[in-house]
Design goal:
Layout: E1 2-11, E2 14-24, E3 29-33, H1 40-47, E4 55-60, E5 63-64, H2 69-75, E6 76-79, H3 91-101, H4 106-119, H5 135-147, E7 153-157, H6 165-178, E8 183-188, H7 191-197, E9 200-205, E10 208-214, H8 215-218, E11 223-229, H9 236-246, E12 250-258, E13 264-270, H10 276-289, E14 293-300, H11 304-321
Parallel strand pairs: 3-8, 3-9, 6-7, 7-8
Antiparallel strand pairs: 1-2, 1-4, 4-5, 9-10, 11-13, 11-14, 12-13
The structure holds adenosine-5'-triphosphate.
Length: 322
């Protein structure tokens, strides 16, 4: 388990990250999402003990990353943003060098290298010189060096940065496989990466946590779109009244315009924790019972992109008002 408490890092006058408080439980895949310069790399370097925070503490399995750095680094595998590979070395030779640095020797080292090569799909390439590998394969070597000492935690800084779409898919599948027995924190500025790989997302804006929630919470379905013509005698207000009094799961009903087919379009906001799919059929029934002409009824989901945009605009507004 990783616990980050009150972490701040200044570079001279610049506060790169501040007031970071979050924890990562065993078995989670957490995405650290933020724009360029948001503080992702700084945060990861602090968690891995490569950078000292100016304030706050980080513990890994109860061990302080500064005071017990060696023990922490035994438990953690780190793929830096630009993994420092030695291009003139062959893949296996490089892993052998890394495992030696990690204190592995003899049979134990040979087995660890074999497993890391297998896990990352590099067995066939083990004798190839790193300089001749494609970017995607170089990234696999970076991952192999991060897992060779069998860490229980993996910290991956922008693991798919600069890769083509096929290589991105391959690395994402690899990360998901590794996640079967490893806790993972990965950083990215790509929203789809989070959706493809992570259970939870911590969004950093200007070095501060703007949100920390599971994807399910963040993308929770919050409203229903209803296309219905209630007839001349039923105004918007009466229509809302009927729906709200008939269904206690409904928070409010707002007319938001007209559908492309010419139906009046309503947004039904549902109360927190309510299940929209059940409500859909109940609302449809009410419309039919009232003799309203039902054009369609849909669940409206929030995308990670819209969640991120709204967090950004809240942040800008707060900054302008302060
Ligand atoms: P990117 O996605 O571009 O890699 P990031 O979210 O990882 O960005 P960081 O690299 O952590 O962001 O940088 C956060 C801020 O700290 C930026 O403004 C950056 O310029 C600054 N910064 C990072 N390292 C240093 C350093 N060694 N000296 C001075 N400023 C630094």
């Amino acid at each position: 388990m990783i616990v980050i408490q009150g972490v701040e890092k200044r570079y001279g006058d610049l506060k790169a990250v501040s007031d970071l408080n979050f924890s990562i439980e065993k078995g989670e895949i957490v995405g650290l999402l933020g724009q360029n310069g948001a503080g992702k790399t700084t945060c990861m370097k602090i968690i891995t003990g490569y950078l000292e925070p100016t304030a706050g503490t980080v513990t890994v399995d109860g061990l302080d990353v500064i005071d017990q750095r060696t023990e922490v680094q035994d438990r953690v595998g780190y793929l830096p943003e630009n993994a420092p590979l030695y291009p003139e070395m062959r893949v296996e030779e490089y892993l052998s060098f890394i495992s030696e640095l990690r204190g592995l020797r003899g049979k134990e080292a040979r087995e660890a290298i074999k497993e890391a090569l297998e896990a990352t799909g590099l067995t066939d390439r083990r004798r190839q010189e790193i300089s001749t590998l494609s970017k995607g394969y170089k990234q696999r070597v970076g991952l192999a060096q991060a897992i060779v000492h069998k860490p229980s935690i993996l910290i991956l800084d922008e693991p798919t940065n600069g890769l083509d779409p096929v290589q991105i898919q391959e690395i994402r599948s690899l990360i998901k496989r590794l996640a079967e027995d490893t806790t993972i924190l990965l950083s990215t500025h790509i929203l789809s990466e989070i959706e493809a790989v992570c259970h939870r997302v911590v969004i950093l804006i200007d070095g501060q946590i703007a949100t920390d929630s599971t994807l399910k919470e963040l993308l929770d379905i919050s409203s229903i779109r209803l296309k219905v013509r209630a007839g001349d005698e039923e105004g918007d207000e009466e229509m809302s009244e009927v729906l709200i009094t008939t269904h206690e799961q409904i928070e409010r009903v707002t007319r938001i315009g007209e559908s492309s087919e010419g139906y009046p379009l309503y947004n039904i906001t549902i109360k927190e924790g309510e299940e929209p799919s059940l409500l859909i059929s109940q609302v449809a029934k009410t419309c039919l019972n009232k003799g309203w002409l039902l054009g369609g009824i849909d669940v409206e989901t929030q995308s990670l992109e819209s969640a991120f945009k709204s967090l950004m605009s809240d942040h800008v507004e707060r900054a302008l008002n302060s």
